């Protein structure tokens, strides 16, 4: 096996082209084996085998620097740069993350998990090279799906302006996570159809030297093209046609399903865990379909993650014109929603919390200054969301709750969520975001008939001395604390704040009469969040306040339960703290 | 005078083409007259006279909907839609804002002040139109400068995908605020040179129907092209060549100077107020030039506002390759800086606070997760910065201080600022942002020799009972409070926090021994800011805390001194509060 002899990308250089072909087969087999047992990004990586081998064969990493966009397609790169054991030996599978990471290898230049950034990052590497008078090659590898993000376009523009060596490799597998949308994709299609010869050419128009490779799985073709552009003195685009999921029948057939996922049965192409547990994503999809049927102005928007709002292929078909996938383009999504709302439509933009970060200015300027009644649904904004450093979802409260004019609602259960969502869609007054709960779906079994036009926090249990204000899906911790306190003859007040962009001042003032301690609990970082608003309000008074949440930090591959304990987000520990505080 | 008869854009329709020409001259004259007395965006508006008249002549606003990007070029539109008196009568000059605003007129669809948003906003209007089965024209007018922003590209992509009527008018005056940079501008240049005939055509590549107009100041040509595309069933780009500052000699000659500014002498083309007061922008430019000379790795970056870092035309020439204007592309700027830092360069990105909002995700993901030692300088992040609703600069603390791994420094005077800046450039440990003061330059006359590697808040005056923690350029209010308190026999402690992304816990603990009240002062909104972190820390203790700052809100054309008073940010009022609190 050649793969076992590759301890470093330098070891590749001694192989013949024929041997590279054998190596490709070995790499693909190893990849598929690990992926089927461990899960991960199958489609993107299976499609990058030959290209990655050719990259490391021709270029001299780490002197030559390769930046992988979003790094969902960097597994083969890891296998060839000293990390093969993490793919060959089950016990070592978790030695590597799913992303490039400088802490793992000198061949990795950035920790990357959000899309559309590679060209700008690489442009910076190239600028420093030029300032220092060095001469290495700088390569950005970016998928067609990632190129729809505005940052990628800003990068392309500036690479041309910079004018010196930079090689942009476009891995065109004709897919984002789901289908691609947008004018740019029509151009890619035209370029593929014409084998790169169409006169309509976005990259040439921008000033790039452009090359097309029809078969990205032909190692020799890839080696040749990379040799041709190596040490180029000007910016080059290599447009490579690849097949997402290449070499694995089921992944080639069902590209969306095999973009990423858990362990699967290689023989049948079925995921082992077929989780059918009720979740807020699917429930939202169901609700929206019904709402769309009743009201033709309702339109669901996603930025390339239709699963967030429960819009699987079938639901997308049913929704028709009332569903829009804008591609990886969160900024457009928010401005688009604002425009729709302004002209009498009812837009609902659903987005994973980690990606709402990409659109702060649009929420502020395009949407909230204009008070347009668009609805933003923030999913997985929780310690129980994605746990990779680059995909953390618990920065949403400081991000959103400090933007003027934005109402940010935090439902605590299913009925409350749908009552709020319905209110948000029906009202015409302002922009509303909802922090969709992300723990198991809690149903009260009774419809929520609250009138959310009048924003008040809810006193769920009236007590004295101690009040617990428990936000959204951490409401259950508040309930536990209240219960535990009874064992100490303390009968506290339990509050569901309902909205977290501001405070229910009347209620807070009322609490002062018969309470001496307020506890806040939120599923997010403490800094800049809801609890700190409460602490600030009570600051000049005798009321004591203790805020619970997570300490501001990029946590990587954490265990959510451990993280909660570390931050004392546990009913028993909180009761312990309370008893100390009121002593 | 025809202009006086135009009370609404409908009144235009009765004029002949010849009369439209006369009207153009009248409009330009009126515009120049007001601009010379009142100030504003001269160049962009002088270049839009004929185009705007043609737009309102051909289309039926407000049924047909025109969205002006950034709206720095919407003055003529205002004159033609019922607001001419605000241009003709000095007493009414301030009846209109410098931006489109739905509160002013039904012909304005959005309050817009940040660039690159019009296409996406208009795309939303068009989507709602389609959902409702309506048939009006939707028009986005965008300058060449604004098209470098990623959001504009995301918009173009999606307009093509949407496929229905939308008319994108590109006002190509060959300038951003300063020169344009990037591959896209080379394409515009090629298209101008070839009169729209070059086969390299970004817009055709994206799938637009493309039209070129060589002389955007020919009313007839503009009327004809708009008539041709009116009611088009598919997306159209009209690329119009105009002259920035058209019709005013000095503005045509010196386009950057006349992009925007205060009142000027029409005869001489000189601004009336030639402010030469020392300011942090120019000082930064001087410092950076010197630093560049000493260290070839230092590179200053701007996103189309070189004035922010004191990089006027002359300084840009001196800096050479060590200055990069990335165009309006804040996201790229941050990722680019991260890449430069990673490869051993020393990037300093200077940006106005209102625009740092456009790059939250890049600061978090591209920069801070990677701990790359880039320097971000945030200018005009102050109540004394720009006071238009869309350009407010005091949301930076909640935005930046809650991003993990980012050090946010807040100097209180000139020497401290440059000591921090020098430290930030020289260190290799992490990403550092500096909240550059924005009131008059305060010099202590003594070099600051603090070692900022060890981050500690500074106790400037040691006292007891009451401690004032005064951030950055509000430090002077803290000094005043301390002084005033003496009259009441209170000798308080004055603290300069130095860093505002976290707390000096040791110091806060120490204060507990001999203080009962802590006051925080910051030049920014209270919500999510520095003071609330202090309040949260002391929440469970007996220490009282009162936070001073601005209430979260979009304030429009405010008087900074009134706003400070409204928020009790005044030494006398604060002392009043303190005396009440400690009674």
From TrEMBL, chains A, B:
* Biological pathway: Metabolic intermediate biosynthesis; 1-deoxy-D-xylulose 5-phosphate biosynthesis; 1-deoxy-D-xylulose 5-phosphate from D-glyceraldehyde 3-phosphate and pyruvate: step 1/1
Q: What is its EC number?
A: 2.2.1.7
Q: Annotated Gene Ontology MF terms?
A: 1-deoxy-D-xylulose-5-phosphate synthase activity; metal ion binding
By sequence similarity, the record places it as follows: Belongs to the transketolase family. DXPS subfamily.
Q: According to its record, what are the GO cellular component terms?
A: cytosol
Q: Sorted alphabetically, which InterPro entries does this protein's record hold?
A: Dxylulose-5-P_synthase, THDP-binding, Transketo_C/PFOR_II, Transketolase-like_Pyr-bd, Transketolase_C
Q: NCBIfam families from the entry?
A: PRK05444.2-2, PRK12315.1
Could you tell me which residue ranges the Transketolase-like pyrimidine-binding domain spans? 278-444
Q: Which PANTHER family match?
A: 1-D-DEOXYXYLULOSE 5-PHOSPHATE SYNTHASE-RELATED, 1-DEOXY-D-XYLULOSE-5-PHOSPHATE SYNTHASE
Q: What is the lineage of its organism?
A: Bacteria, Bacillati, Bacillota, Erysipelotrichia, Erysipelotrichales
What binding partners and quaternary form does the record give? Answer: Homodimer.
Entry keyword annotation includes Transferase:
yes
Cofactor dependence: Mg(2+)
SUPFAM superfamilies registered for this protein in UniProt:
Thiamin diphosphate-binding fold (THDP-binding), TK C-terminal domain-like
Which keywords has UniProt assigned to this entry?
Isoprene biosynthesis, Magnesium, Metal-binding, Thiamine biosynthesis, Thiamine pyrophosphate, Transferase
Record protein name field:
1-deoxy-D-xylulose-5-phosphate synthase
**Which GO terms of type biological process are on file?**
isopentenyl diphosphate biosynthetic process, methylerythritol 4-phosphate pathway; terpenoid biosynthetic process; thiamine biosynthetic process
CDD domains listed in its UniProt record: TPP_DXS, TPP_PYR_DXS_TK_like
Presence of keyword Transcription regulation: no
Q: Please provide an example of a Pfam family that matches this protein in its UniProt record.
A: Transketolase_C
The enzyme class is transferase
Domain of life here?
Bacteria
